[in-house]
């Protein structure tokens, strides 16, 4: 009987997760029953939400997360061996999935469509959850108009880098905020952001007042906290804010504080809405039908930070939370 | 030639306004021209926004604010002597208003309709700007459903006391937050709020978890800052927040900070929207057509904290900002 490897949590995260909070474990792979498939992970996705969704954490539990995997054996109709699927089965290299009894959106494997020659790993990035997140969060929540000023925080991340480029394609002026000079250079020079700032070395309030003296119309927020307070203080009347993430606090063990925003929310009549992409779970294809051609036409660029080897998944996760990645962070199993 | 009295700002407010930041001044009242009316203030309104809207402040300028006044002389069609009007002419006891050339919503005098025996001062309160604010802010922004849990901060204030009662009338369970035991008692015992807490003596987070273990659906926010962070941390999925004011910081001379909220905004997909009541400026009558009958039927209660004498307007304003009022704070000229 062959084995599956998996990472289990050995200690609940306190502040920044540590490699020693995880243990590489193994389990027997049972004989396949009717309605089941056996999947072998090709890429494991490491994402900020995996740190935030603590309800999925527990000592002894397999760490949460998505992967793109190949079906190596199948006893389920519609899921033939050889096809690739995306599934939220956690940090595991081999998984038996009971397709017939998977009843939740995120446990049912999603068959990867023909990517037209694009890399398989994009089904965890721009042609997967992060791409759909950027697309629906920006367009559905913020409804940006040509000529409007759009600020994106976490601009060099998996979602922010795509959200900013979509805003550019829609005719907006886009300002990125990121955490290193390398990231700032990348989003400006390679992705075509109009401006970008390193929040660690720039006074954001002053910088925004200079480049957007009439104010910001749309803010796509991946980070929350102090950076967001500075952006919100510079928004224009009836500005819209999509809150996609709050990575600035995920590793905080103390209560994080930031300048109060409500006085700006009132006086400029701002609208702020948080979202998770499951809201549009039946509609992700709409996003990919636009994003795919944009990639092929060279209008939408992506980048991946690939860590080699399943055993290095904790390191990839910790590095992503530290902001060491450009674009989407994935693990090549 | 007779004189008008007015309060001018002698020093820009720093932190809490002081009586010495104002000077009682007088000016000649010019002879009335065609299209003009002469108004004598009956009541001056003191409201939190007068502290917040610093663009109206300037050394030597008349302090901003609304009043209800009697037309004592008229050379303008449609504004006969003897009628009452509401106008945003600042802290002045007599004002010549050029009706023909008043082109902004808030400079044009609003004729007070027949109040059916209710006090004139209500046209600055529940049947005026604060009443319309509570009505549209709660119903248009939050769309509360029967059975939902509604939290109101500043619950004993001019707007909060009305917003909470409207929520009750609409079948919601209403929790008030206020700054003294007297206020808590008033909103519970007289206004019929289901629960209320004194934020100065209670751990709000714990209190909300106890009385609303399944979470808060709607938050009508008059205060911002720490109280709001505690409420937002206890909201339910797809909760709605109307941000009406941010009085907790108006008197702060330092940058006020509060616990970060964006992680809750994301994970529960909350929607927060700030508003000013001018958004519905053509529709205030809709509010008063509901609020008036509710008052006469005894379903909606109001209270006023009346300061006597125009000369005491600064004291009334400072006291209101300190939270010394129950219900609407007005000055009887």
Please describe the topology of this protein.
The structure is a homodimer of 333-residue chains.
Chain A: E1 3-9, E2 22-28, E3 36-45, H1 49-52, E4 67-74, E5 84-87, E6 94-98, E7 110-111, H2 129-142, E8 149-153, H3 160-169, E9 173-178, H4 181-190, E10 195-198, H5 204-211, E11 216-221, H6 225-232, E12 235-243, H7 247-250, E13 257-259, H8 262-267, E14 271-274, H9 284-296, E15 304-308, H10 313-321, E16 328-332
Parallel strand pairs in A: 8-9, 8-11, 9-10, 11-12, 12-14, 15-16
Antiparallel strand pairs in A: 1-2, 3-4, 3-6, 3-16, 4-5, 5-7
Helix pairs in contact in A: 2-3, 2-9
What does this structure look like?
Two copies of one chain form a homodimer. By secondary structure, chain A is α/β, with parallel strands linked by helices. The first copy, chain A, has two domains: 3-123 and 304-332, Quinone Oxidoreductase, Chain A, domain 1; 129-278, Rossmann fold. Chain A has helices spanning 49-52, 129-142, 160-169, 181-190, 204-211, 225-232, 247-250, 262-267, 284-296, 313-321, and strands at residues 3-9, 22-28, 36-45, 67-74, 84-87, 94-98, 110-111, 149-153, 173-178, 195-198, 216-221, 235-243, 257-259, 271-274, 304-308, 328-332. In chain A, strands 3, 4, 5, 6, 7, 15 and 16 form a seven-stranded mixed β-sheet that branches. In chain A, strands 10-9-8-11-12-14 form a six-stranded parallel β-sheet, sandwiched between helices. A two-stranded antiparallel ribbon of chain A has the order 1-2. In chain A, strand 9 (173-178), helix 4 (181-190) and strand 10 (195-198) form a beta-alpha-beta unit. In chain A, helix 2 (129-142) crosses helix 9 (284-296). The longest helix of chain A is centred in the middle third of the chain and has 14 residues, at 129-142. The two termini of chain A are 21 Å apart. The interface between A and B is large, with 37 and 37 residues. Strand 13 of chain A pairs antiparallel with strand 13 of chain B.
């Amino acid at each position: 009987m062959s084995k599956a490897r998996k990472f289990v949590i050995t200690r609940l995260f306190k502040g920044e997760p540590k490699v020693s909070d995880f243990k590489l474990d193994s389990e027997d792979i049972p004989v396949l029953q009717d309605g089941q498939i056996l999947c072998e992970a090709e890429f494991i996705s490491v994402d900020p939400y995996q740190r935030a969704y603590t309800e999925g954490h527990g000592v002894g539990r397999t760490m949460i997360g998505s992967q793109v995997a190949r079906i190596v054996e199948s006893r389920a109709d519609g899921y033939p061996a050889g096809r690739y699927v995306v599934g939220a089965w956690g940090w595991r290299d081999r998984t038996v999935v009971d397709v017939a009894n998977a009843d939740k959106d995120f446990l049912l494997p999603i068959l990867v469509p023909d990517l037209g020659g694009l890399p398989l790993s994009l089904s965890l990035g721009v042609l997967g959850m992060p791409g759909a997140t950027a697309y629906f969060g920006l367009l559905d929540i913020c409804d940006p108009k040509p000529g409007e000023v759009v600020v994106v925080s976490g601009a060099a991340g998996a979602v922010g880098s795509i959200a900013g480029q979509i805003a550019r394609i829609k005719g907006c002026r886009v300002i990125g905020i990121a955490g290193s000079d390398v990231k700032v250079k990348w989003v400006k020079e390679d992705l075509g952001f109009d401006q970008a700032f390193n929040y660690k070395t720039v006074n954001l309030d002053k910088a925004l007042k200079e480049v957007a003296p009439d104010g910001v119309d749309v803010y796509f927020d991946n980070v929350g906290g102090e950076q967001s307070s500075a952006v919100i203080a510079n928004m224009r009347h009836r500005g819209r804010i999509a809150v996609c993430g709050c990575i600035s606090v995920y590793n905080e063990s103390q209560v994080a504080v930031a300048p109060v925003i409500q006085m700006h929310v009132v006086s400029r009549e701002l609208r702020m809405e948080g979202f998770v992409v499951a809201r549009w779970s039946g509609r992700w294809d709409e996003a990919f039908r636009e994003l795919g051609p944009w990639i092929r036409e060279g209008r939408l660029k992506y980048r991946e930070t690939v860590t080699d080897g399943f055993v290095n998944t904790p390191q990839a996760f910790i590095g992503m939370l530290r902001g060491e990645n450009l674009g989407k962070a994935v693990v090549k199993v």
